[in-house]
Amino acid sequence: SRLGILIVRHLKRLERVILGYLEVSDGPEEKTRLGILETLQCTIEHAWPRMPCRLPVLLKALLRLLWDVHTERGPTPEPVRAALLHGATQCLILLDRCCQGQVKVLLEGVHSSCEENRVRECLRKVQESS
């Protein structure tokens, strides 16, 4: 937050860190993943002019996170899973706003072919966001 738009100077390195942390579960409390989703939201809000060129990588990572959280059968409590799904959904909504609706267009095929209700619900929220 303190860096504001100056975060773009560090965007390439920060993106690698964010992607790395989103890929790995860190136990039942998932504090690291929840924290990195907050970091991603803040980064998108401040560096929004640079998000369209990062869209393919971030979209893929967030969709993979949604799927992983839904399919993981570990000891993670339900409220933590819900918080992860909510955080990823919020990031997708912010990305869509930065990219003039490109996320919605890209998710149309995914939403129609997805049979998992929780993931589908997250994608529906992105599609219905304004």
From TrEMBL:
It comes from the Eukaryota. It comes from Ptilorrhoa leucosticta. Belongs to the TTI2 family. Signal peptide: none annotated. GO terms for cellular component: cytosol; nucleus; TTT Hsp90 cochaperone complex. This is TTI2 protein.
